[in-house]
Amino acid sequence: MLAGGDCLVHLVDAEAHTLIAGPRGCSVLAFGQRAVSGSTHLPRAGVVRIGETWVQDLGGPHPWEREAAAAELEPVEPEPRPARIVNLEQVAEQHVARGDIDRVRRDLGRAAGSVRTGLTHLTVAPGALAAPPHCHSAEEELFVILAGEGTLTLGESEHAVRAGSVVARPPGTAVAHCFRAGSQGLTLLAYGTREPSDVCFYPRSNKVGFRGIGLMARVQALDYWDGEE
Predict the structure, then answer these.
(1) Any idea what the CATH number is for the domain that residue 162 is in?
(2) How many other C-beta atoms can be found within 10 angstroms of the C-beta atom of residue 51?
(3) What is the DSSP letter of 211?
(4) CB atoms within 10 A of CB 219
(5) Assigned domain for 211 exists
(6) Is residue 152 one of the residues assigned to a domain?
């Protein structure tokens, strides 16, 4: 059984899964990695190559149409909740109050056993930052504002955000971003891919974080590479 505030993680190559709403319906936010597949479609041969194997291209209706035409799922009795379901209130809080940063963080993804991606719940105090301005080389981030209002800073520009706002930060932009809460505070979900090759730059402190080796270093001088040596 699932309820409001639950976080559910499905791992790659694990069990087949779906969600069945109760009599009052169900609203869900779904996040997932856009993994690049190794498949190649050969239309003249009528096959799809997947690595060193291949399958026949059957054509016909789209897979979603075929699924919709299949028999309905038989109802089953709910089983005990697996470890990959956690509720927001059960996840430990991590409070950071340093300088202009004042937030409460709950790492939902790790608590539910996520491996390749992360999902974090953040509550930011009025007027405070959620995190220092930063930008990623390889990690893609996605933010959903759940409650309150505030400001998104992108480089030198600022943009108002409020409940319902969705912010996408693709990797490799070299444009730092951060969120500052308004007078009523700010609550948001932060989703991100866990790329071991990611490098994160913090322009205020000139620090650089290397995720794959767990190292933080300070840059002595800023000299951005412009493609020429």
Answers:
(1) 2.60.120.10
(2) 9
(3) G
(4) 13
(5) yes
(6) yes
Structure tokens at 221: 């001088």
Residue 90 CB coordination number (10 Å): 13
pLDDT tens for 17-70 read 888 888 888 899 998 887 776 788 888 888 888 877 888 877 778 888 888 888
CB-CB contact of 208 with 202 (8 Å): yes
Q: What span, in angstroms and rounded, lies between the C-alpha atoms of 174 and 171? A: 8
In the chain, what is the greatest distance between 2 CA atoms, to the nearest angstrom? Answer: 65
Instruction: Kindly list the distances between the CA atom of residue 74 and the CA atoms of 20, 69, 190, 194, in Å, as whole numbers in the listed order.
Output: 11, 15, 35, 36
Measured at the CA of 35, the angle between CA 30 and CA 37, to 5 degrees, comes to: 135
**What confidence tens digit (pLDDT) does each residue in 78-89 have?**
788 888 999 999
Spatial CA neighbour of 121 closest among 98, 91, 99: 91
